[in-house]
Design a protein that fits this description.
Blueprint: H1 4-20, E1 41-43, E2 58-66, E3 72-79, E4 82-85, H2 88-92, E5 97-98, H3 117-125
């Protein structure tokens, strides 16, 4: 029967061998994947819910529950290194930029904005 120190030595050698033969991809960061987007990512290129409502080409929507019991849903949008309030709940906090800054004008109706309802609905769905 092998001695205890011989068994310990064999285990150390086996662990060291396994560590040196590990695949380099197992210990390095994965390459960026353009399809790996946050759940709230939206873009003009992929938008299918009517006219694109923003003057920026892409953004990321977020939703956070607020208030007692989380009854209020605050929808925000990140674009151009800024956070914008999409709904009144988010705007009422005073923490975010006004969405008007990047909300597109409706070319068919001067003075009016493009319908932002579908964007808000997508944002609210993130709280579900």
């Amino acid at each position: 029967m092998p001695s205890k120190s011989l068994l310990q030595f064999a285990v150390v050698i086996a662990v060291a061998a396994a560590a040196t033969t590990a695949s380099p991809t197992a210990i390095t960061a994965a390459a960026p994947n353009p399809d790996n987007r946050p759940r709230g990512y939206v873009s003009e290129e992929t938008w299918t819910d009517g006219p694109w409502p923003l003057t920026v080409s892409e953004a990321t929507l977020m939703c956070a529950r607020q208030g007692v019991g989380g009854g209020h849903q605050s929808v925000t949008l990140a674009a151009n290194r800024k956070m914008y309030a999409v709904n009144g709940t988010a705007k009422s906090t005073g923490q975010f930029e006004d969405i008007d800054e990047i909300w597109a004008e409706d070319a068919s109706y001067p003075g009016l904005k493009v319908n932002i309802g579908p964007l808000l609905a997508k944002g609210l769905s993130l709280c579900e």
